[in-house]
Amino acid sequence: MRHTVEQIKKDSRFQLLDKLHYDDILEFATEYVRKRTRSMFFYLALTILFFILQWSAFLYGIFANGMNTVSLLKQFLYGLIISLTIVIPFHELIHALVYLLLGARKIRFGAVLKHFAFYAVADDFVANRNAFIFLALSPFVIVSGLNLAGFIFVHGYASYTYISVLFFHATMCAGDFALLSYFEFHRDKELYTFDDVGKKTSYFYYKKPEASE
Fold first, then answer.
1. Most C-beta atoms within 10 A of its C-beta, which of 15, 85, 165, 179?
2. Is the distance from CB of 191 to CB of 206 less than 8 angstroms?
3. Would you state the torsion angle of the CA atoms of residues 104, 109, 111, 116, taken in this order, to the nearest 10 degrees?
4. CA nearest neighbour of 106 among 92, 91, 120
5. How far apart, in whole angstroms, are the C-alpha atoms of residue 204 and residue 94?
6. Phi, psi of 36 (to 5 degrees)
7. What CA–CA distance (Å, rounded) separates 144 from 191?
8. What is the DSSP secondary-structure string of the chain?
9. CA gap 106, 125 in Å, rounded
């Protein structure tokens, strides 16, 4: 059963748990990145793995394949530039497409420039826990998979650009995983979330246990 914003706001079975203004995303993310949840363990482990993979590949290229150090470092720089200019909008586009798959229609894009944070949200669309997990993980999985494939199947110096994008994009997914950590931290509750784009605020409600179906 898909709930609506009006239903959740008016139904006494639903209780407001938190609300997050977009300008406060950095403080929110910092709080839940620090939680000892499986989501954060998974995220940190993969980010470290990507970092090790990146620099192991660079060192292997230099010492085993005799590749030029400066040229390899240029691929590192190219990976950073591509991540900041192409991958960020692609990441948010994936969020938007997943929203469409879930049934949302009023999708909006925006940014909190003081935190260099970008977002794609669906106005007045209610997502439950499973929908949100799908929404949050999709860009990480798709972008990581594409860049791993590029590193494996593209030959020469260009392959190192892919491995750099893999790492830099992972570092940019901290906000998504912080939200997953939030849902996991409140795993004892039946959570629902929606956005009011006009107020630039995300709302998190839970269904009271005695009211759960």
1. 165
2. yes
3. 90
4. 120
5. 22
6. -85, 70
7. 28
8. ----HHHHHH-TTEEEEEEEEGGGHHHHHHHHHSS--HHHHHHHHHHHHHHHHHHHHHHHHHHTS---HHHHHHHHHHHHHHIIIIIHHHHHHHHHHHHHHHT---EEEEEEGGGTEEEEEEBT--EEHHHHHHHHHHHHHHHHHHHHHHHHHS-STHHHHHHHHHHHHHHTTHHHHHHHHHHHHTTTSEEEEEEEGGGTEEEEEEE-GGG--
9. 8
User: What does the pLDDT look like over 44-68, one tens digit per residue?
Assistant: 999 999 999 999 999 999 999 899 9
Q: What CA–CA distance (Å, rounded) separates 152 from 159?
A: 7
Domain assignments of the chain as residue spans, ordered by start? 5-211
d(CA 66, CA 44): 32
Cβ of 78: how many Cβ atoms within 10 Å? 17
Residue positions counted in the chain: 213
